[in-house]
């Protein structure tokens, strides 16, 4: 059943009013605040004019809201309309009952009239008999029409009854809604009255405080002067040596920390020097990204590195678990971006004895690499000039090609001829070269798909490392991790 309810307007509650405390009264309604200037001078903060709405405006606004509340309570018209409709439905029901009684009486009269005509037809003949038969047919037609009217009357009675039930239920719902709205409106009116009373009290308290502050104006000015004088005396006698001692203490702590770190580094270097005296091999080269590390023989013994077994490792620190770098089994290794922040080690097995050489510390990053990568990531594709050094493990002499690193794929081409073009997938591999080739710090290993590998030489070490970082970032966005073989 459809519920009919009056329109309910949104009621905006009055804004909260900050009450004024009368504990202490001053000329400016609050205690003046001060702060120290550049030369420790007392500077008064600028006064802010924080005037809220006047009490008269607030009372007028509350009066309008109360008038709207009064209008919301006049919903009796809706209830009276439902009551009138319900009375009309009852009247229709009574009329339907009267029509039903009249229909029943009509059937009785027609039956009596038909019986009388049948009796007369049996006693008449000739023209009179035909007239009687016509009259009987007319009576039967009237009976049929009366039956039809009775069916319509029953249907009308059903509709009237249905309408009466609907109006009765709607009237009850309207009364419930009216009662609910009345209680809600009364509560809001009481709340508004309480707010108005609070506003009146706040206004009276503000008037009293303003009168008291006007009476105490000279005392407040005298108090301000005394406070300023006291602050000046305190500033003149304030000890300044404490600040100097604090700065000196902070400087001593920073120096001690630097000396402690330097002592740790010296201790590690002394330990490595002592170990290197007994170690026949030494690791040479700048230990940073873009350089090349080489293993050399430091002893007088004629040891041939080509007859030694070499394996490079990377580790987070000297005591952590090492990770073997697959394919890095030569005396030369060029660190790649994945090695930044890690320590590199190389195990050398010669004549059945294993010797380990280690970098002095983690591999340092390239300071300009991050800026270069961020500038290229604003583009959709980044192109690098390369030369194909090897293809499928065989030496390959070629001219300059273009190595294009995109957001979804990598392409190697020269002009309109494309050597390889593949999207990022799990079968793709990309890392720095781990073999003993010419210029390993500028070379890159790329496997676009199985059974196809390239070793590309870039124009500079930074270009190679930039291409590796870009490709790995784009592949990570495609949920693919680009690493070297068996990483």
TrEMBL record:
Residues in Stomatal closure-related actin-binding protein actin-binding domain copies: 55-97
Keywords tagged on the record: Actin-binding, Cytoplasm, Cytoskeleton
Pfam families, alphabetized: SCAB-ABD (PF16711), SCAB-Ig (PF16709), SCAB-PH (PF17684), SCAB_CC (PF16712)
CDD domains from the UniProt entry: SCAB1_middle
Stomatal closure-related actin-binding protein coiled-coil domain residues: 101-270
Keyword Cytoplasm set for record: yes
All copies of domain Stomatal closure-related actin-binding protein Ig, residue ranges: 281-378
Subcellular location: Cytoplasm, Cytoskeleton
Region of interest (Disordered), residue spans: 35-57
Gene Ontology biological process terms from the UniProt entry: actin filament organization; regulation of stomatal movement
One GO molecular-function entry: actin binding
Residue span(s) of domain Stomatal closure-related actin-binding protein PH: 381-487
Family note: Belongs to the SCAB family.
Name of protein: Stomatal closure-related actin-binding protein PH domain-containing protein
Native species: Brassica campestris (Field mustard)
